[in-house]
What we know:
Arc Repressor Mutant, subunit A, alpha+beta, 4 domains, globular, 15 helices
Amino acid sequence: MKTVTPGWHEVAGNLNFSGLEGWFALESAFDPSDTTRDFTESGERWRATISYQEGNLLPPDGGETPDGTTVDFETIREWRLTIKRHPDEDPVAEPAVGREGRQRFSAHVRPRWRGQKAEKKNGEVTDIPTPDALGDGLSVRVSGANIDPRRYFPLLRHAVTAFGVNAEHFGGIPGEDGYGPHETSNVQDAARYVRLDKRQSGPVHGRDGPLARMGHLLENDRTGYRKVVQNDDDDYGTNLPGYYHTVTLGPTRVAEAFPGHELAFEAKHYYAREAADRKPSEPLAHPKLEVAYQVSQMPGDFTLRWNDDGITQLQRELDRVIVSILAEAGLDVAPGDDGDEGPKRRGPFFRDSYWKPEVSEAGPDPVSLDFARIRDEQESVVVRHLADGGFSPVEWDIAETLVSDGGKVAPEDIAEENDRPLGSVYRALRRLDDFLERSREKIAFESPFVAEMVVDKVRQAREAGKGALETVAKTAEAQRRGVEETASAFIAWASKYDIDIENRDGARMRLRMSDDLSKDEIQRRIQRGFELWTDAGRDPATFRGALIDFGTGGSSAFYYLQ
């Protein structure tokens, strides 16, 4: 489908290469009086500088690596290349005043061999792990920004060639087997982003927006990794709503919101530190929505390879998260190009020096972040449970204990705290099983959303009883009027929005709802109801022909499903 195309921001990882010839070649080619060279790649001008550091790597024992390569050096130099867009072409570089551009990356070239060792400052000798599959080779740690990761490899080859080093030592000969970085090459960090017009980005970072809900809904309070940050004051104490809002999801929860995804990520809405002092016409006055791969949250045996498949997976998953957040926030993910905002703006987006909001014909399909699905599924479970007779006294005790504790609780603790027989607690837990999570003989609510919804009903029932009884009554009435229990998610949707359903045999279906809503909100609710109705296996024509009754008038549901 048509969607905006995010751009690459920061990228880091390891490009590995077989053999030590490239390291020897840099030793031979280095001229301390000539450390800067220019070159051209894909029609663009680039500049490379070279330096070295005398690190703490030790020569191999006996001057020979286990694979038989002679390394006749007492000091093992580690080479550093800085590869950047030529200052005459980098959009933000200002050579006259020495301002550096931001389209660049560094490459730290280190030799590797099996059994390699290094000496710490205190004299302690430590092992340097080297993949067995690599053997004698080079590990090039790359870290940069505003460059497609697919370009790091060819840019590195051009840079070493500019210093007189044969590019074959860095990835082989094009067209031959083995060309490219070694299979052990890996991605450690990568981010994609869009820049949003600050006048329209509020729904993204709102307290009930998609960032907040991702962390709130999908993470059990004390299971796995969850990080939610909401800071609306900049580093100088100036209030700037949305200044730094992030949510991080580990891989165990990512698939719940994004089916088919496996990469942990951090989604972030943030401004530059100096944003408050920038004019609205400047890009830095406007925030970024960025999604970054989080390698630290991945299992220890997982490696995201730096190859075509790995980069494609990375881009697909990060872009899908971005587009889904935008869609969930109600922003136009594919704005037209015929607005009157000027060349800097396009729909909710703001162009910057390295990214412009271009729309692709084959962008990722945004998911509803599965928030609606998960909420409806979880809500329908609670509603169905209440409709089946409500909570027993023991179940009330369990609910209140889980909410007040905020985490996982052993059944024995619940029994002791509430002076209940352990057997009755276990029987009640079996009845509550649909919305509880169990592990290691402890229990918790499936999500904070379920916890809040249940405790809401608990408190209402304890204090007045009205809320729970109304929900049960609405559900029971809906069932009497022809909505079977199989449509529990649809029932939950109607209960949530206070929509009265009438669907008598032979009569036109009627949905009574408030008209105190915008047309867009009414349309959004009706469209969601239609999805749940059809998901339950009901006849789509019945819903399309339903009368949406506002009390003072109404219209066909078909009108809202265009």
